[in-house]
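Milestone 3.1: sequence recovery, worked example.
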């Protein structure tokens, strides 16, 4: 994607690929030519903060807007190039996936939409599924990857030294631990 004019630096939300407000701790992308680290964001209060940098090339630098930046106009410096940006409290956006989205309405009807289309999440009660997997399908997929011992522990839990019931979780599958107090 070539979002920039020759010689110019353009900064966009990494989630939306749009120029617009960026929020502290959100991901951004800078497009230009001859780009290099470091990336520094100078907020409206005049404070400059180094930005954590992710994959980088001569034409694109991905980075995180540093926490603590003042809201309002900002300057993003990438190597020797600069661009204006706007820092806001929030910057809503969804990362796009190369999949289809399946939305299921309360009455059970489903709509399939290519991920490249503009998507309305629909009225309240509409369930949106990414990649065609329903929550039940995802649960089945996770359980199929668990060992018998993991399944038993997740169902029964364990008792710790404080007389609490603990469900330890399964980190490798992204299942968080749960403490149940008396």
């Amino acid at each position: 994607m070539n979002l920039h004019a020759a010689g110019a630096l353009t900064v966009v939300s990494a989630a939306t690929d749009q120029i617009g407000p960026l929020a502290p701790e959100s991901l951004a992308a800078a497009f230009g030519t001859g780009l290099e680290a470091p990336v520094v964001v100078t907020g409206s209060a005049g404070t400059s903060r180094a930005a954590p940098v992710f994959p980088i090339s001569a034409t694109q630098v991905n980075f995180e807007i540093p926490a603590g930046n003042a809201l309002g106009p900002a300057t993003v410096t990438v190597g020797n190039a600069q661009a204006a940006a706007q820092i806001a409290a929030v910057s809503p956006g969804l990362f796009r996936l190369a999949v289809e989205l399946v939305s299921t309405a309360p009455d059970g009807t489903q709509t399939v939409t290519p991920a490249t289309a503009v998507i309305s999440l629909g009225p309240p009660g509409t369930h949106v599924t990414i990649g065609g997997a329903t929550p039940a399908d995802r649960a089945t997929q996770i359980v199929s990857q668990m060992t018998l011992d993991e399944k038993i522990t997740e169902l029964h839990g364990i008792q710790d030294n404080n007389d609490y019931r603990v469900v330890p979780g399964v980190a490798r599958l992204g299942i968080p631990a749960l403490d149940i107090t008396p």
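The CA atoms of residues 48 and 80 lie 15 Å apart. Confidence is low (pLDDT under 50) at residues 1-6.
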